[in-house]
Amino acid sequence: MxxxxxxxxxxxxxxxxxxxxxxxxxxxxxxxxxxxxxxxRIQIFTGTVIARAGFGMNETxxxxxxxxGEGVERKxxxxxxxxxxxxxxxxxxxxxxxxxxxxxxxGKAVRLxxxxxx
Length: 118
Fold this sequence. Notes:
10% helix
C-alpha cells in the first residue's frame, strides 16, 4: 500500500456522511457550533459563497458578507463536525469558479442575478 492510498483510507473515516449541497454564488446560512465555557450554541453566518477549494478532508468554502459597510469573509471546512448545517437561501447565476471580483464591489453592484429553478 503506497502513501496516497493510506491517506485516502484514513480520510474515509473522517468524511461527512452527507456533505452539504451548494454551489458558488449561492447565498447560504452556515450554522456552526460555538463553545462558550460549558455551553454549546449555534451561530448562524449568512453570506454568499465566493469560493470552494481543496478536496476530501481538506475541502473548504469561503462565505462573504457585508457588515456595517465592511466586507467579512470566513472559511469553513466542509467536513467539520462543528458545522451543524448549511441552508441554501438563494441561488445565483455565475460563470466563474471563484467570485473574488465581489471584493472590489460595493452597494448594489454586489448583487448577483438569481437562478430560477423549475
